[in-house]
Design a protein that fits this description.
14% strand; 8 strands; 321 residues; globular; alpha/beta; eight-stranded mixed beta sheet
Amino acid sequence: MASPFPRLLPSLPFSSSSPPPRIFPGKPLPRRRAAVSAALQWNRKPQLAGETPRVVVVTSGKGGVGKTTTTANVGLSLARFGFSVVAVDADAGLRNLDLLLGLENRVNYTAVEVLNGDCRLDQALIRDRRCPSLELLCISKPRSKLPLGFGAKALTWVVDALRSRPSGAPHFVLIDCPAGIDAGFITAIAPANEALLVTTPDITALRDADRVTGLLECDGIRDIKMVVNRVRTDLIRGEDMMSVLDVQEMLGLALLGVIPEDSEVIKSTNRGYPLVLNKPPTMAGLAFEQAAWRLVEQDTMTAVMVEEEPKKRGFFSFFGG
């Protein structure tokens, strides 16, 4: 099977089975060999951990931190790895996941029509032509009112139907959770057994993320991982933005990925073309792919300290001031 992500592989001067080249007899290059062995981990399909389907809710509490962008890029990355993915847009009134995936003109049926018996579940699922392993399911149409009976039990029924469909259960069900902690939030987290908490390094997003973490744990979701979005190292060095280590200390969650600030996000959103499809790849797109890899293997990453810029020395510094 061909590698699903050949562009991540560097051109290797020698194979992993052959010894590294020697410049002088008896003096191998240990550093070069270590670098190659680390690069070769990308020349394989990630090993799926846990029971399938894995139902993951992408939430944050605060709006505008990048939940839908994370759902679109992580879902498409999982599909490109070879896993079947169903992305559910659980925002009834303000859905946007179809726009980010470029599928807005193909939404004819939604989960509400499935529950009403107006269509089958496979008719409401929209397959992405660029990556057939990814399917989109919207809860309702933007201008339609959600029935009073649609709630946590209804969404749980939809996920159970995906689990038992004749074509086979998907490997992942990603639920794009609406902002806030009202009824839409309760509905979105009901069928999930994992949570992906998206936040940014500012105090308003962190306060909401801490509140949402407590609600998820009260609902029985213990497997919570964090994605820190829109990180700028220049502001961190200048002490104008909290570091990822500070965020991790405040929330106390396992770190799944760090997404740098990238101007290509707005361009990809307006085009309906997720970042992970860009060629050449962007830094944010690569970060989303790495986060998806860790999600498959239930792995985490370790934040590193960003060195602060040396402070400017004033006139009195020469006198010990």
